[in-house]
Amino acid sequence: MRARLTRSPSRTPSQSQLCQWCLTTRVLPRLAVDAYEFAALKDQLTGAEMTGPRVAGDQDDMSQMPTEYKPMFHEWATVQPGMVCLARKKKTAVFRQYVAAETAVPVIACAACLPVAQEKDYFFAGVARSKSVRSPDDGVGPTTDEFFTVSLGGMVTVLNTSGTQIHPGDLVEWCLINPSAQRGNSQKRLKTGPRRIGIRTASVSSSKIIGRALSFAKSGETLDVLVKQ
Q1: Residue 20 exposed, middle or buried by CB count within 10 Å (0-12, 13-18, 19+)
Q2: Could you tell me where the beta strands, DSSP code E, fall in the chain?
């Protein structure tokens, strides 16, 4: 018997209802990288924009220097399994303008040129389960949307980018910037590609919680996380 997602005309299904429906029907949500988000990115970010206020009174000249530059589209839009995906809040009004929205939900999986102040504009959309590798275009722009699937529940494997150890039982949340860079200790990031959406330990009052850690991992190691539903 095929499971069916029911809803009243005046209410939209919650994330927990969507997760339960996806697990019941054995269907994972289908997503596509939102190219309109790439077009809205700045060409460069200063250190202060990328990390936010690090130390009280930190207004030196280095914080106003360009620190990050807009990557190429094929680098920005590539998604690998285990990457955290986000979606913009309050996008229902313009959702029908996207061709890919007929069959997939537009999300982002890259934090390049996104100021830390814009964290409030996004919400957790899942952890990538399949890959979407984009090839360099001809300069005109992409011609097709590469779809991929994400996990909204159960156990997922992610990379510890928090700069510190994560222990079993710790709450995990997503972030746009490495916590050590936000504290002013370091601004190092991966040199093999653009900045990605990271994770760090969270408090119970955080609104960005992904789930709870199931294994121990040092910085740079993979760990298992039980995604909340």
Answers
A1: middle
A2: 30-33, 44-46, 66-69, 84-88, 105-107, 122-128, 147-151, 154-159, 171-175, 198-201, 209-213, 222-227
Taking the C-alpha atoms of residue 185 and residue 183, their distance in angstroms, rounded to an integer, is: 6
Over the stretch 196-211, which tens digit does the pLDDT of each residue have?
A: 999 999 999 999 999 9
Q: What pLDDT, in 10s, does the model give residues 121-140?
A: 999 999 999 988 888 876 66
Question: Collapsing DSSP states into helix, strand and coil, what is residue 173?
Answer: strand
Q: Tell me the helices (H) and strands (E) count for the chain, helix number first.
A: 5, 12
Using CA atoms, how far residue 121 sits from 9, 11, 28, 126, 186, in Å, is 27, 22, 24, 16, 25
Single out the residue of 219, 229, 224, 124 nearest to residue 169, CA to CA: 224
CA distance 11 to 140: 40
Cα 102–Cα 35–Cα 90 angle in degrees, nearest 5: 65
Q: What's the rounded Cα separation, in Å, for the pair 8 and 130?
A: 32
What rounded mean pLDDT belongs to the chain?
77
Q: Does pLDDT of 4 surpass 50?
A: no
How many Cβ atoms from other residues are within 10 Å of residue 105's Cβ? 20
Q: Across-strand partners of 217?
A: 166
**pLDDT confidence of 108, banded at 50, 70, 90?**
very high
